[in-house]
Amino acid sequence: MSKIAVVAAQTPEAQAALADLQRRYGTCSPDAAEVIVALGGDGFMLRTLHRYLRHELPVYGMKLGTIGFLMNQYRPEDLPERIARAQPAPLRPLQMEAQNEAGGTISALAFNEVSLLRQTKQAAHVRVDLNGATKVPELICDGVIVATAAGSTAYNLSAHGPILPFGSNMLALTPISPFRPRRWRGAILPATVDVRFEILDPYKRPVSATADSNEVRDVIDVRIRESSEQTMTLLFDPEHNLEERILDEQFTF
């Protein structure tokens, strides 16, 4: 049996499940573990991926929260056997480098998406460059998203962006409430592309950038690319794997 570490959200339900699993399986700390079990919803799963990134351990999630797209069903029985037959789903995060008005540069990772959002009632004005070439000279919008395949069913989908098949090595570039160009609805990009957003008129029309839950205010320049160094692996029950889940989302009405 693999050495299991269990981490849980602070909800009463998740904490009760944590205590139960610790009694059943004699769990250990993440520093001594071979696999991490995360109890909660998708938000807690994202926090777990960020918190334990340096451990480079696979993470098996069980849903004990509102949304559980990245989680398996919660069942306390036969946990070691479920983990042993689980299918791996490697996630490679986005690397964001955001420069703010003060001249600082902040780096952050995103497993779901990097989103730029206007900070005031005025629309953001953004120039979009791909691999050093300008593709949209001026995007007037409430914001813009770059989403991974795993994150394409989250904020990206609510902004009418495309659902990307897992393993497609593609990213979704999706504007939020675009005003100009009027008919532009975004693009599907190869994961190797270097995306740059330059904020036009940042003092009059301030913009924030958020990598998953890490927000940077008053940005003037944001660069995004897939990380070449970092990766995390999620584990899914064979009957309910991530690839099938993403495919099913395309047929949900």
UniProtKB/TrEMBL annotation:
Active-site annotation: D42
Chief location bin: cytoplasm
Residues noted as binding NAD(+) in the record, renumbered to the chain: D42, G43, R47, N112, E113, D142, A150, T153, A154, Y155, N156, L157, S158, N214
Cofactors named for this entry: a divalent metal cation
Subcellular location(s) per record: Cytoplasm
InterPro entries, A to Z: ATP-NAD_kinase_N, ATP-NAD_kinase_PpnK-typ_C, NAD/diacylglycerol_kinase_sf, NADK
Organism domain of life: Bacteria
Reactions it catalyzes: NAD(+) + ATP = ADP + NADP(+) + H(+)
Biological processes annotated in GO: NAD+ metabolic process; NADP+ biosynthetic process
One term under GO cellular component: cytoplasm
GO molecular function: ATP binding; metal ion binding; NAD binding; NAD+ kinase activity
SUPFAM superfamilies linked to this entry: NAD kinase/diacylglycerol kinase-like
Enzyme Commission number: 2.7.1.23
Keywords: ATP-binding, Cytoplasm, Kinase, NAD, NADP, Nucleotide-binding, Transferase
PANTHER family: NAD KINASE
Function: Involved in the regulation of the intracellular balance of NAD and NADP, and is a key enzyme in the biosynthesis of NADP. Catalyzes specifically the phosphorylation on 2'-hydroxyl of the adenosine moiety of NAD to yield NADP.
Family that this chain belongs to: Belongs to the NAD kinase family.
Protein's name according to its UniProt entry: NAD kinase
Species assigned in the record: Dokdonella koreensis DS-123
UniProt lineage: Bacteria, Pseudomonadati, Pseudomonadota, Gammaproteobacteria, Lysobacterales
